[in-house]
Fold this sequence. Notes:
4-stranded parallel sheet, 3-stranded parallel sheet, alpha/beta, 30% helix, 5 helices
Amino acid sequence: MLNFENLNKALFPGVGPYDIPPIEPVTDYPEGDFLPISDAMTEHQPEGKNLHCFVDDYRFARLWNTPDRYIPILQRFRAVCSPDFSTYTDMPVAMQIYNHYRKHWCAAYWQLHGLTVYPTISWSTPDSYSWCFDGEPVGGIVAVSSVGTQADKESKRLFLAGYEEMMKQLDPLWVIFYGRVPVECDWNVIRIPPNYDKIVARRKEASKT
Length: 209
């Protein structure tokens, strides 16, 4: 087997024209707090807690680069969301598809090792709908982020259009939502406060003392 791009570790039967590894659905409600995956190494009480990947790509690239090293760390947590490798609208389409593949390879590999994995869904323009939902489970719980998508009318329009398409294609049971929830999306949502909200709250609390 080819010894690059993790193909020596696992080669999954693919879905769609780009052979995206499929992810099994999860329907168990995510009890417990959500932490950014960049905190996984330093968390001293991981039991019952979940990890999300709504941080800069470089903070979790290691999970793809050296996947076996981090399996025991991730296994300490209740569940983890699949990596949120970027699919920005101004990225080359080939890179967007590659990031979608990497997200799914990691998630499938984690599930192979017994982890509970909530699929993180992302999209860019409507052209991405032909591949960005490949490998995603239908009828389970999914995770999304609205951070950076509500700054202007066009980015908000693209986010809402993709969200609507996600609901149509995947029919999720619940949506784990990181960031501000637009009123158009406020249905069966599990809210995760963004990290900057926690920072602001801590600063306000500190200012009272």
